Predict the structure.
Amino acid sequence: MDKDSEGLLILTNDKSLNASLLSPSQKHARSYFVQVDNDITDKAIETLKKGVDITLDSGSYTTKPCSVKKLSKAPVLPERNPPIRVRQNIPTSWALIELTEGKNRQVRKMFASVGFPVLRLIRVQIEDLKIGKLETGKYIEIGQDELFKLLKIEVSRSAGISKQTKHAEKDGTVKKGAAKKVTTPAPTQKISRRKKEGQYSNAPRKKPEKPEKEDKNSREKESSTKRPISKKNSGHAPWQKKKDTSSSARNRKK
């Protein structure tokens, strides 16, 4: 319910109740008194009953068929604070709508789509839970069993285990319709895709065998055989001519 609306609220810390009450699949009926601008027509009422197109944050949405009827006179309600805007030349009218869904500002958008903007919106009933004569700002406490009965919610569907189920678990039997006790399986170790399957084998790991030390002499022999034989350095640069030290050269000098 938005800040501009009034009426019945349920205050609870039971998350399961909140989930089951607001779930669209549960289809819990909600009733609202609606005060609209101008005198609402029968044609508009019939259009609302069949469903209208409204705009939500997710896009266009067609509302489900619902119950709508025009009230012949205004219901007895406390004054609104702040009061609604009043225009002297334009009357207002009242309607009662009951629907089983609750989109964001749905009722306001529904009446606006048929040309009758909402001036005041009061939720007066959720299933069999009625606001009655409860004054504005007041509250009453209701037990879980009574509340669930009025809201037509089965206790077994709530998150907490019912008393009947607890007794059945102590006796070792679970009655029909009771919540079943679920045992969690023993944790299993997950294997990452980057891990090798062999690392998680039950067989004992074998230490990698160290290579035997090679004989020093054999390594030297092996290296000498592989090493290329280089020519003896003459000590002359490539462009220098090598001195001829033969006997024929000495005879030419003489």
User: Anything to note?
Assistant: Residues 159-201 have pLDDT under 50 and may be disordered. The domain at 6-151 is CATH 3.30.70.1560 (Alpha-Beta Plaits). Residues 216-226 form the longest helix (11 residues).
